[in-house]
Amino acid sequence: MKTVLAIFLATSVMFGAKVVEVDERFQKSQSCKACHLRIVKEWDESWHAKSHYESDEYFRATIDYVSRKTRKSLNGVKVECAACHNPRISVTSTDMNYEIMAVMELDKGSKVNQALSSDTLNEGINCIVCHNIDKIHADKDASIRGIHRVEWSKSGIMTGPYNDASSPYHKVEHRDFMSNNSEQLCFVCHANDKSVEGLVFTDMQSEYQKDKKSCVDCHMGEVQLGAAASLKIDKGKVKEREIRGHGFSGAHSAGMWEDALELSLLQQGDEIVITISNPQPHNIPSGFGSRELILDLSYKKGLSELENSSISLTRHYTSKRDKPTIPHLALSSTKDMSIPANGTKILKVPTVKGATFVDVKLSFRLVNDEVKSILNLKEAIWSEKFFIVSTSLKLK
Ligand code: HEC
Ligand code: HEC
Ligand code: HEC
Ligand code: HEC
Ligand code: HEC
């Protein structure tokens, strides 16, 4: 018991992120609609808006499973994950006292429970997560992320990309991490995601090979001319500006997957050499631990299929009890099978006797079968195969 207590105390000192309360007029995206309707609608469709226990089945099942396996209270785990998934939470760590109260069911009405039931958290990563950040401590240790890596502005200040904006509803301030240095904003959370055993299963920041484009070019779309606000602030008209989208399309959108990777085939004797190239500046898959690429091969003679096979490129995780587990509880994992940023992966498979053609199709799944069955995920999206690219080769 003593060591557990010491660890809890140490974490709360190290990670005592400062909470700044947000005035009710700015808490929810609803309050931005009057002047930023387009943006609110786009964001509402994004997975940033779904980052909450109630809105993402995979997230919820992972929290439940971590709580059960580590015997930490459900709310204790929720607070830990909130560091990146629900950063405007008003409690940033829980201690041993809370754990004891939770076991005895004496935690009703506690600060922790109140914080978690606040309905602003339902919006996940919403406007005042990104636009109310004052400073990002990019120099802090790589393991310090989310809420622990930022300082909030006063309530009512919106930090943004422009240095000449003004609004009657809120104050505005320009920040570099909202314009030409926006990777820094993304890396507050999209980096160094690790298990309870300290295994880092995703680190987009260290694999990132910046090219010409930055995160926002691909995930918020190219810069366009349009209005940032629908209020007529420019001599009776809306002000024309350089703007971007707020869709943050990514792994859950079929459209983004098409041609995300390239595929080429070559025959060498009785082997087929498959080269998968990744033109993106981060690994694919990346972002989360149990994503999967699937290669489906179909060997044909004329139009009829002689044989088919499937290759899975994913990672498997092992717990400290040496059992298959989910990324968040892993002590170790198998080799990273992702395609490196701006790089390639080469696989060799045998040809099939009598085959004159081979068709190869590459797809992506959000979660591999192992983790899907451990967590008993039910929604169709977790089994869906997103098409990336296909090609065929005439065999000699
Ligand atoms: C994950 C972080 C993030 C979230 C969440 C977010 N924004 Fe933004 N927003 C940005 C970034 C980054 C830019 C600057 C993009 C650029 O121009 O490079 C931006 C730009 C803007 C702009 C300037 C005009 C434009 O479209 O570029 C407005 C206004 C804005 N956001 C409002 C909102 C509102 C309202 C919400 C909530 C519905 C919201 N944002 C949610 C990151 C975010
Ligand atoms: C009454 C209208 C109104 C409401 C409501 C409103 N805004 Fe704005 N906002 C504006 C105007 C006007 C601008 C300046 C636009 C320009 O200069 O092109 C602006 C600019 C911004 C910018 C860009 C600031 C910069 O310097 O780059 C952000 C970010 C922003 N608003 C976020 C929000 C958020 C988040 C909410 C909801 C909590 C919100 N706004 C509610 C009118 C409004
Ligand atoms: C406060 C933490 C935080 C910040 C800052 C943040 N993200 Fe995210 N982002 C997340 C989390 C958490 C998710 C996963 C939500 C879920 O799936 O429930 C996510 C998901 C995504 C996705 C995947 C969407 C999908 O459909 O799979 C993309 C793309 C993305 N973010 C891009 C960005 C970019 C670009 C920036 C910087 C402009 C950024 N994020 C800033 C936490 C953050
Ligand atoms: C040149 C375009 C490009 C740039 C730049 C880029 N991405 Fe991506 N990103 C993609 C593509 C393509 C995918 C794969 C298809 C998809 O997920 O929709 C992807 C996937 C993702 C995913 C989902 C990964 C998964 O497997 O769950 C996240 C999260 C993400 N990117 C965040 C970022 C962040 C943060 C940055 C900046 C550090 C960034 N991206 C820079 C193109 C880009
Ligand atoms: C360091 C910041 C950070 C922390 C802390 C964090 N996450 Fe995440 N998590 C992310 C980001 C960023 C993504 C989005 C990656 C992507 O979509 O590729 C994500 C995605 C996920 C996903 C995939 C969701 C989906 O819809 O595909 C699950 C599940 C998840 N996190 C569970 C958890 C749990 C449970 C905890 C707490 C034990 C937690 N995370 C703590 C940053 C974090």
Indicate the topology:
Elements lengths: L1 H13 L9 H4 L5 H12 L12 H14 L3 H12 L10 H8 L7 H7 L9 H4 L2 E4 L13 E3 L4 E4 L10 E4 L8 H4 L6 E2 L5 E3 L1 H4 L7 H5 L4 E4 L12 E4 L10 H4 L4 E7 L2 E7 L14 E10 L2 E10 L3 E2 L5 E2 L6 E2 L10 E7 L6 E9 L3 H7 L10 E9 L2
Parallel strand pairs: 3-4
Antiparallel strand pairs: 1-2, 5-6, 7-8, 9-10, 10-16, 11-12, 11-17, 13-14, 13-15, 17-18
Helix pairs in contact: 4-5
The structure holds heme C (HEC) (5 copies).
One heme C binds next to helix 4 and helix 5.
Count the beta strands: 18
- Shape assignment: globular
Helix/strand/pairing category: alpha+beta
Widest β-sheet, arrangement of strands? 12-11-17-18
What is the CA-CA span between the terminal residues?
Answer: 68 Å
Give the proportion of residues in helices. 10-25%
Question: How much β-strand is present in the residues?
Answer: 15-25%
Backbone CA Rg = 24 Å
Average pLDDT works out at 93
Largest sheet: 4 strands, antiparallel
What ligands can be seen in this structure? heme C
Oligomer kind: single chain
Q: Any low-confidence stretches, pLDDT <50, length ≥5?
A: 1-15
* Number of H- or I-type helical stretches: 13
User: What is the count of structural domains?
Assistant: 2
Summarize the entry for a quick read.
This protein is 25% helix and 23% strand. It is an alpha+beta fold and 396 residues long.
